[in-house]
Input
Amino acid sequence: MLKLKGTLMLANADEVAAIQALRLKSSEKNKMTRDHNGFRKLLVVLTKAGKVMALHTGDGRVIWSNLLSSLRASRFGGMPSALRIYQWQVPHHSVMRENPSVLVVGKSGAESSTPGVFSILDSYSGEELNSMKLDHSVVQIIPLTLKDSSEQRLHLIVDSNSNAHLYPKSPDALNVFLHEMSNLYFYSVDIQANVIKGYSLQKSCGLNLGDEYCFSTKELWSIIFPSDSERIAISETRKMNEVCSLSTSSFMEHLVT
Output
């Protein structure tokens, strides 16, 4: 009846508002199901305070939000902060049984040497599935293109001692990583020192020789920009699927201006 009154231009102001609300609710772009072309998605964002929100790309509304308990001061002490959010698992082969999940990486304190914090969330519900305090600091986070058999994406966390720690810590992930380790390189950008350095990975870890998921790094090259004439203003990570014409395999590349 409301739609008919609206079509005949007989609706009052309240009825017009009700009609618009019905149209918005029934709009194809605002549904919570996947569309044919893949444009309807959830945009998962992270605030520095440790709050994660999922926004509907159709109308921008908040589907869920979660202020992570793993990044609260009462949990680990100090003043924890969130750093970055990454894709953790997209279960293409078990999509009916498992939801995608995201990884939030944070620090348990303000100092660069303070231990890191992991939190894994369900992308569809926002539920915190797992959290842990790491036994090392977080200086650089490197998402790899490699995945284990459960489709969990492999990540390297570089600490303040320049050691790289592999996650997830599973034999399957370790085997996948070791098979490709000789082809993997990364580099870091120090904006304060105006320096870019490139590294390779070594099998032994300087901190703990008994930790098979910890790897030492070897500096291969460095570029020092003259501070009196040049300055690194910002660095940006390349897209992981971007095609580059290189003679070596690399990851965590940056665009530097």
